Amino acid sequence: MRSIHFFSIVLALLVSNMMLSCQKDDNNTDTTAATDNALAEGESGKVIDAINAVAESYGVGKPDGTQETMEDSLFSPCATITVDTVDALKTITIDFGPVPCQCVNWDNKFRQGKITATWSGGYREAGTVITVVTSDYYAGYSASTMNKHDYVKTITNEGLNANGNLHFSVVVSAATVTLYSGETITWQSTRDREWTEGSSTLPPFDDVYLITGGASGVDRNGNAFTVTITNPLQVQFCPWIVSGTVETVHEGSPARILDYGDGECDNKATITINGAVYPISL
Fold this sequence. Notes:
The protein is of the alpha+beta class. 19% of the residues lie in helices and 46% in strands. The protein has a 15-stranded antiparallel β-sheet that branches. The longest helix is centred in the first third of the chain and has 27 residues, at 2-28. It is globular, with a radius of gyration of 22 Å. It starts with a helix and ends with a strand.
């Protein structure tokens, strides 16, 4: 009888250890935090790109500023852009409307809602502070899978850096991404955005920026994470970040290394965990 009892105890311990081992393995291969950060990072960058493109095209901060309402082919015919450069505090509003519209000339995403930015001066002027807020803003690759992005961010023109390039601090003080499936991601970040190419021309199509810095947040599963850009992220006129690496860490798990690639404009990336490489689509 004692032998049977002992065997039952040993069997229970083995099963328990196996369950814990499986849970650990599942945790070690979980890419949720890394992909959730990429999702928040990607659309946050798109919001900045949209505002910058309008500012450059319509001369925000120029002394002969005018108030205009227009449509811009970069975003789509259903995106109405309002530019007010008359008041001391300049304002740009990009309104994608109350129903999904597809930005076929930009990144092919569907969007709705508003992006609003206020400016204290010219985009290229050192010391200019830009405050960006989204309102009922949704984005996704189909009208039925749009995520809601709530961003509050402050962009400050820091003047020329040691490389002789204009650079901007970008602080996202509060961001929430509500997925179309119902889960939420919270995110905060501090970035430096260096304008390395295209600053001498007005159209945004030749602009290239290098982004450094860090972030933190809570992924859709409720796990807190921290992020460090280990190689600068390169953004240009492409729907996705084209190169750079990001390290994402959350408690009890090995680091996840997200690699955006070698500069090709595509939605392919990889996540490396303990030497194992997992391909993902952005």
